[in-house]
Amino acid sequence: MSTTPRNTRPYASVLDTIGWTPLIRLSRVTRGIATPVYAKAEFFNPGGSVKDRIGLPIIERAEKAGELKPGGTIVEGTSGNTGVGLAMAAALKGYRCIFTMPDKMSQEKVRLLKAFGAEVIVTPTAVAPDHPDNYVMMAKRIAEETPNAILANQFYNQANPDAHFATTGPELWEQTEGKITHFVAAAGTGGTITGVGRYLKERNPNIKIIAGDPTGSILAEYWRSHGEHKIEGSPYKVEGIGQDKVPGTLDMSIIDEYHTVSDRDAFAMSRRLTREEGLFVGGSSGLIAKVALDLARRIDDPDALVVTFLCDTGERYLSKLYSDEWMRENQMLEAEHVTLRDMLGRKDASAPAIVSVAPAAGVRQALNLMALHDVSQLPVMDGDECVGSVVEATLSQRGLETPALLEATVREVMDAPFPSLASDDAIEFAIKLLSKSTPAVLVLEHGHVEGIVTRSDMLRFMMGR
Ligand code: PMP
After folding, report:
1. Tens of pLDDT, residues 77-94
2. Separation between Cα atoms, residue 371 and residue 358, nearest integer Å
3. Which long-range contacts (C-beta less than 8 Å, at least 24 apart) are formed by 368-373?
4. How far apart are CA 5 and CA 352, in angstroms?
């Protein structure tokens, strides 16, 4: 816990608590990396995201220009966080808010904006940027048609990058005592990276501005080709960053490197930040941290100082990247590595680990054993070695056809031995082997038969997962 006094005086309103978010050193996900990496924790803002910083400045600029008058309406197309920033300021100033939001955004964000009293219109994600149903186009139309309304226009409003030039940039300069060497962020509107980048480069032109972009966004490729390649975006799951069109608030000339990151890598890093660093953040923070850690590893310089940006709180994504079910549905969770040993450990402990029969035993004895233990097959064991197998269905069929067989020994009628696998092999190997002709697999621990996994064991196990 901190012993340095913070918040030692009362504030006039919640808006005065925006900004001066802590800079926190990453110490676990950076293991083996010589370059120090710090994270600017924007989820400490009262609305839970970096976007709190732009709500009030956008409103105040419109008031000053005489565009927004008492009782007026603020309209915006938002991925959610800007909506919170605007709605929080609007709540205190008595303005009404109407937000349009693409349907890929989480339900939590829609409910959050409604909690602040905003009206939310959900629009389809999969439409062209200039389609009338596009969330930005629809916001524009609503602003034009509503009396005494303004469009906050975060994608073109210079109050957005200016807010970061005035607050986020100077905070980072002071918090790192001017030692920051690399700032890593990702552009949604580009307000953060542009404002912070401009400020830092003004203080020290050697500071590098590094950008991350989700696979599917056009921004990184636009930057690489200096706008020469006409590229089409494709859908991706990370929220709040990347675009299918370059925003007016993004100054690409400020960026020194652009890196593309997949949804899968971004979400995996967000989850690591939560579990290993205790920093509960959204997907864009994971994407940026992935870029920052790769960069830190690459530059391998203990005297450098890399700052990554934690844009918003993970609470906004509980039904998405923090839901194992959602992650699995979207093929973004590595398959859980379950070994055969794990599986044997979860079998009914009251039953014997393995029921087997000796080669010299009679067929009747083998059939009785199977009935007694309610199993459909038996390995034939000669000491510690599996020399064959008998299967109830085959044996009883053959016994019915040739009754003399019931008097034979197991050795005379047995089939090939069951295949065996090591106890630390993944269950997937057993799943591949099990079939009608291979109804069971033996599990070996240090060469000794430790147990057996049958088709019905596997089925029961999989159904229980
Ligand atoms: N992450 C999240 C979750 C966001 O909502 C946003 C803003 N849309 C950003 C990152 C990017 O910030 P900026 O718009 O300043 O580029």
Report:
1. 987 899 999 999 999 999
2. 17
3. none
4. 63
Rounded Cα–Cα distance for residues 446 and 463 (Å): 29
Q: What is the CA radius of gyration of the chain?
A: 31
Range 38-54 average pLDDT? 98
| Beta bridge pairs of residue 310 | 41
Q: What is the pTM of this model?
A: 0.75
Q: In this structure, are residues 170 and 199 in contact, taking their beta carbons and an 8 Å threshold?
A: yes
Question: What is the 121 CA–ligand 1 centroid distance (Å)?
Answer: 20
The owner of tokens 């049958």 is: 454
Helices 168-175 & 191-203, crossing angle to 10 degrees? Answer: 50
Q: How far is the CA of 442 from the centre of ligand 1 (A)?
A: 54
Q: Is 51 a catalytic residue?
A: yes
Contact 82, 100 (CB under 8 A): no
Mean pLDDT of the chain: 93
**C-beta of residue 309 within 8 angstroms of C-beta of residue 320:** no
DSSP code, position 160: H
Tokens representing residue 459 in the block? 């089925």
